[in-house]
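In response to reviewer comment 3 from the previous cycle, which asked for concrete evidence that the modeling workflow produces usable outputs, we include below a single protein chain processed end to end. The sequence was submitted unchanged, and the resulting structure tokens are shown without manual editing.
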Amino acid sequence: MRIRELEVISELVNYKSYFDASFSLLCTPSIISKYVTNVEEELGVRLFVRSSKTSDLMLTPEGKVLINSIQKITKEYNYMTELARQLKFTHENVMRIGVQPRYGNIYEQQIIASFMYDNPDVKIDIVKMGPRNLMNLLQSGQLDAFFATLHEDVVPEEYFGDQIANSDVEIEYLLSERENYLGISEEYLPGLTEAPFREFRDFTFVFPFPDTSDLQDMKAVSSFETAAKENGFKLKKMHFTGNDNTIFQLDRMMPLAERTKNVPAQYDGKKYVRTSHWKGCSNQYFIYRKGSKKKTMNDLKKCVNQFIRQHGSGTGAV
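The workflow returned the following structure tokens.
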């Protein structure tokens, strides 16, 4: 039986005949009769009394028992379809965008701000996680797109590996970030806005991701370990999961340096010092599924393309 057949039968009890019902249900009497016959044959019982054309439409004893279940099914079905419609509308007006929990994130912020300016009615839901977790969310449909910043030695197609095998994931290169800044309390290195790496030998370096064996995280730390070794000291490090501004209170109590590739928003009592002669490089990517049918996804890609044109993607330098 089909849901349309059950919907018609649910309404038949409100009419005297198939003929009366046909005007409201937008079905001919013969179609209504066919629907009733189909359901009765599948259930194995008669639902309506067959009598003369002058008699009112009546339920059989079996029909009186089953009609409540039939009406409940159609009611639940209608509720489900309405709920799905609302969810689809909500989904179409929400963009779920992933970013890594690093300090700065200026470039993706520029793209997202441009998108918000062009689409003021769209709600933005920002999710902060590591790149592998963001990829899992993208593949499961819980994200529309995400931005990933990977060490120059990390090839994204190899890094994500099986996560993107046989999928429609598109990885678009945005730009390279070659400069390095360290956020420190203003009481340290007074008057300096740029300093060689050796000036930070007494600092503990803060990384906004867990201390794991993830290739990207290890590479990100290795650039600093190499620089410390070249400057004659051992790197002291601290991992802060997520971008928690608590770190901006802690660095007033001890010499901490939060690494970032670009200068984030200013905070009271904090400054960002450019590391001179820095050798490390990170590449930034925009990652999405090509099969997305959302109009807002196309609008976001337009903002990404505009950003690429403005910043000369493909040059390998900012």
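The domain at 93-177+282-311 is CATH 3.40.190.10 (D-Maltodextrin-Binding Protein; domain 2). We consider this sufficient to address the reviewer's concern, and the full set will be provided in the supplementary archive.
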